[in-house]
Amino acid sequence: MQNVDLINHELLPTYEFRHIGYETRPVYQHDGTEVPGLNQVWLILDNEKQLNSYTTAAVKEVILGFQRASMDRKCVAVVFTAKGDRAFCTGGNTKEYAEYYSNRPNEYLQYMRLFNEMVTNVLLCDKPVICRVNGMRIGGGQELGMACDFSVAGDHARFGQAGPAHGSAPDGGSTDFLDLYVGFAKAAESLVLCDQPWSAHTAKRLGLLNDIAPVYKNKDGQFIPNPMAITNTYLNDMGDVVYGDWKTGDEKKAAADVLKDCTIDFSILDKKVQHLITQILNTFPDCTRKTLQSLRKKKLAHWLANSETNRSWLALNMNTEASAGFTAFQFGDKGAKQIDFALLRRRIAEGAIFNKELVLEVLPEAARKVVDEIR
User: Fold this and answer.
1) Of 89, 147, 175, 309, which one has the greatest count of Cβ atoms within 10 A?
2) Pairing label, strands 216-217, 223-224
3) Which fold does the domain 20-215+266-315 belong to in CATH?
4) Whole-angstrom Cα distance, residue 79 to residue 250?
5) Domains of the chain: which residue ranges?
6) CA 8 from chain center: how many Å?
7) Nearest Cα to 143, choosing from 99, 110, 176?
């Protein structure tokens, strides 16, 4: 057969990644043998100290990473994950938000152009995308995860939103995607109330995840389910579903004591991810791509209809509630990272102008002290 010099269609084929990890790894058949000439691509968020929140520089590289993986003829699937065992992603970098983007709506408008392109490139990837959830998937991290085709999580992971509790609306994808996974009622609870995040067991039960894996090993070296979540009971005495709920009271204290002697091991999680890739390997590539394109239309219909106007609103919001919420979260003391909501509502009802003075009124004390230094 005649050899052909294949054209490289990447926009930046020689770009070297510095803010995220980009790795090609082998793929394997069911019997464990490596398949020559094919690979899987891992995109790895690398900001472990800040719970893998994405900086502006990282957002740019996630876009380029998905474009490169999409153009990789040898790639069977993309694994989207992060460094460490605490978080997959907790969303945008609140340090950048509080110190730079607050009160600079035009700057945030440009940032949101990048963010929207990041989500769009996940949704348009020519390869199946697997979210390997190695820890918390919160806020914008939840949005990135839901843009993926499959999600496999360690059972220590937590899933939730932060928007209205911290000065934003979850319009980076969650208002478009979450109800497609869990239904309107549970989506409204998570998106509006920003209450206690779901356990991995609850997230799987609600339909948010394909699979979960135990990651905790006890002092005897045995895997155990996350002791902080209820996993041995489905219904309580009143018939309410409690499977996956977080333990409380003495049960929570006992579970915390168990965790003290546990280590985290991702070996079962990674076996499940690799098994999924092997299953994908053994399908027709174009039929798989078209199937996912058809499935993704439900997400894309909402995303493409809303993302631009959401971007504009989110930028303008940097002049008002976001300037208070992100500042409170970034600079408030532990346990005091929210504004005084009742005071804000009361002052707005009185006709107060949303300006720096109002923000100072409602900020927690620790955050109030640093506002003048950064603005």
Assistant:
1) 89
2) antiparallel
3) 2-enoyl-CoA Hydratase; Chain A, domain 1 (3.90.226)
4) 39
5) 20-215+266-315, 332-374
6) 31
7) 176
Residue 5 DSSP class = -
Q: How far is CA 86 from the centre of its chain?
A: 12
Low-confidence ranges of the chain (pLDDT < 50): none
Rg, C-alpha atoms of the chain: 22
Q: CB–CB of 231/199 below 8 Å?
A: no
325 and 339 in contact (C-beta within 8 Å)? yes
Q: Note the pTM of the prediction, 2 decimals.
A: 0.96
Note the pLDDT tens digit of each residue in 156-191. 999 999 999 999 999 999 999 999 999 999 999 999
CA–CA separation, 317 vs 312, rounded Å? 9
Question: Hey, how many other C-beta atoms are within 10 angstroms of the C-beta on 130?
Answer: 24
Structure token digits, residue 201: 């067991």
pLDDT (tens digit, 9 = 90+) per residue, 245-262? Answer: 999 999 999 999 999 999
